[in-house]
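[job 4471] stage=fold_predict status=RUNNING
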Amino acid sequence: MSTVKEQELPAALAEEFHLQATLGRGGFGVVYRAEQRSLARPVAIKLLTWELSVSPEFVARFVDEARLAARIDHPNVVKVYTSGTADGQAYIVYELVEGQSLSSLLESGPLPDTRAAAIAADVAAGLEALHQARVVHRDLKPENVLVGRDGRARLIDLGIARDL
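[job 4471] inference complete, writing structure tokens
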């Protein structure tokens, strides 16, 4: 996690959210750890890059990600709190999952059988919730599974998911 400057957040969001650290960067944007001031709760904010924010196609995909994820209310799928556009930049505010990705966990070698089975069961339960909501994830990989400090796995990143 790296520290961030407040000016990295669009001014319209800076009133409500205080950036604390960069959690990750991807092809579509940056995910930050932040505090939602009004509710005094930690959140994750995903900002679409400025370059992609001017593309109606990428903004539409980003909005679809938020819309699809917000339909799912399940303990094994990360929750979406809100989304929108601020100062011309699209964003999604998610629950913050304290923990690490499954890919990070696997860097030190195979997991014990019982832990692997528990994570697999959580992933399957999350996928079942998506499928019941007629959503196909389409990008399931260890980087898109967060394992919280509580041991529970949650699916993230519905960026290329499909609504059936």
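[job 4471] summary: Residues 1 and 74 are 27 Å apart (CA to CA).
[job 4471] exit 0
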